[in-house]
Amino acid sequence: MHQLVNSAKALRTMRKTPLILSTVLHNVSQEQAVTLRDGPDGWSILYILCHLRDIELIFTKRAQDLLERPNPTFTVVSNEELITQGRYGEQDARAVLEQYFAHRRAFIALLESVADEQWGLAGVHPQQGPATLLDVAVNTGLHDVDHIEQIIRCLVQE
User: 7-156 architecture in CATH?
Assistant: First the structure.
């Protein structure tokens, strides 16, 4: 039986984000990345890129935990902590984007090495409940879409 959601689809989705972001952000300057927001109290493009970069490492860590330990509990870090720790306001948008791309390549490489039976390995998200490795990969793609849409809202409000 063929699954509607599977590892191949999750990886295909994850591979698309760098191309989409490269295209959407091609002509965006550092000034625009800092000043354009998705609403009066919204995030700037720079903050969104920093968030994507940092969350990529968190998703990768969850995948590593699932592959290395039985039934791990995932670490949760608040957006406020990430913003403070990552000093988002001081970052260079192009450098952050390149860091994100490097993290994504490493995450995809990790997932490409996973055996079919490992995609069902499960852990626990303290707020959202049980999650498999496939869930982590699918949620990574869904998270990407949310923030790509957010970036587009920043750009159309210019």
Answer: Up-down Bundle (1.20)
| Cα–Cα distance for residue pair 7/141, rounded to 1 Å | 12
Give the pLDDT score at 83: 87
Three-state helix/strand/coil letters over 121-137 = CEEEECCCEEEEHHHHH
Closest alpha carbon to 58 in 131, 116, 153, 158: 131
Residue 133 makes CB contacts below 8 A (sequence gap 6+) with 63, 66, 67, 111, 114, 118, 119, 120, 121, 122
For the chain, give every domain's residue range.
7-156
Q: Report the C-alpha gap between 112 and 41 in whole angstroms.
A: 39
Is the predicted pLDDT of residue 78 greater than 60, yes or no? yes
Is 157 a residue whose pLDDT tops 90? no
pTM above 0.85, yes or no: yes
Check the CA dihedral 10-94-19-156 and report its sign: positive
User: Is residue 3 pLDDT above 90, yes or no?
Assistant: no
User: Which residue, 90, 93, 84, is CA-closest to 45?
Assistant: 93
- Put residue 129 in one of left, alpha, beta given phi > 0 → left and psi -120 to 50 → alpha: left
